[in-house]
Amino acid sequence: MSANFTSVPILDWSLTADPARQSEFVAQLRHAVINVGFLYLANPSVSQDDIHRLIEYIPKLFALPQETKDAIRMANSPHFLGYSRLGAELTKGKTDHREQFDFATPHTCQWKSPGDPDHLRLWGPSQWPPEALVPGFKETMEQYLLQVQEMSYKLSELLAEALGLPKNGLSQFYDAPEFMQHRGKVVKYPPSNAAEQGVGPHYDAGFVTILLQASPHEGLQVQNLSGEWINAPPIPGTFVINFGKALEFVTRGLARATSHRVLPPKGDTPRYSVPFFQNIGLGVRLAERVLEFPAEILKLRDARGLLAATDSVNFSEFDREPSGKVNLIGRVKSHPDVAQQHYPDLFQKFFPEGMPTQASAY
Ligand SMILES: O=C(O)CCC(=O)C(=O)O
Ligand SMILES: [Fe+2]
């Protein structure tokens, strides 16, 4: 089986509901997580009606008056939740050509006073647009996030099985559900012939990302082991799943975090997407949790070969810092305006020259 995949495999989630066929799904998942790092999920458990309801809100959300969007700007929020204007975000030091709202599942911030670790401030309440202007949006988005969250936990169990661990082999990385928060973004990539990147090459941070491509535009690309960019066009009725640096770290490179990027759409309509990022517990130090894998699974990793260095270099701190701190550093580098407001020490550390026009870090 070649590690230099030229397309992204399609897995059928409905197999997981059939005890006789679940093992087929697990076998396909094993291949996808070790060799590709990306997959399409067909027949997901999230209601298609709810997905369509959400998709219909997206253009309305971005069409809100600029001052309404700015009123919930991310810079208001120590939790990095809220609205980011076009060009406000950096990846690898370059400006991304996208506009977005970061929302999250409901959560009460556990950071109480300056003695508490900074990274506990990473999670907290979302900022929502005024209900009267987008009636029903908050409920639709929360309902969507809840369903995707549920599917992500089930997927973690199947991943554990695919990697030869007990079913609950990855559950030690999550806190009790009432203390967890997961993030979902609504993203608009405006068409552009000039912009270099919709979002530049990067890895995701956590275990699992579940992406809804919410318009028919191409643009998402994933990097194979020989460095080629492979298209992952939208397939109606599917999600795109990929695995993040935290999962790669705790599985000692068995699971593959794959670098990906989005090219700005050509033509005259925007591309929309809704990525869901499943978090792990903020206080978990990955380096302290050693998982044991069966020899036959480790052989599959060896057959694939080492993960080549790619263009993305983020999240190297998992070898020492709690997961929340690693994520916080990533967020600070991507959103210096939020950092300057709420994390002045980290801002100073990563941007000693002041607010970047082009950031120096990834
Ligand atoms: O918009 C997309 O299709 C992918 C976005 C992405 O990779 C990210 O925000 O991490
Ligand atoms: Fe990503």
UniProtKB/TrEMBL annotation:
Domain Fe2OG dioxygenase: 178-280
The keyword Transcription regulation is assigned to this record: no
Superkingdom of the source species: Eukaryota
InterPro entries with a match to the protein in the record: DIOX_N, IPNS-like_FE2OG_OXY, IPNS-like_sf, Oxoglu/Fe-dep_dioxygenase_dom
Keyword annotations: Iron, Metal-binding, Oxidoreductase
Pfam families given in the database record: 2OG-FeII_Oxy (PF03171), DIOX_N (PF14226)
Nuclease listed as a keyword: no
Family from the record: Belongs to the iron/ascorbate-dependent oxidoreductase family.
PANTHER family: 2OG-FE(II) OXYGENASE FAMILY, PUTATIVE (AFU_ORTHOLOGUE AFUA_2G00750)-RELATED, OXIDOREDUCTASE, 2OG-FE II OXYGENASE FAMILY PROTEIN
Name of the featured protein: Fe2OG dioxygenase domain-containing protein
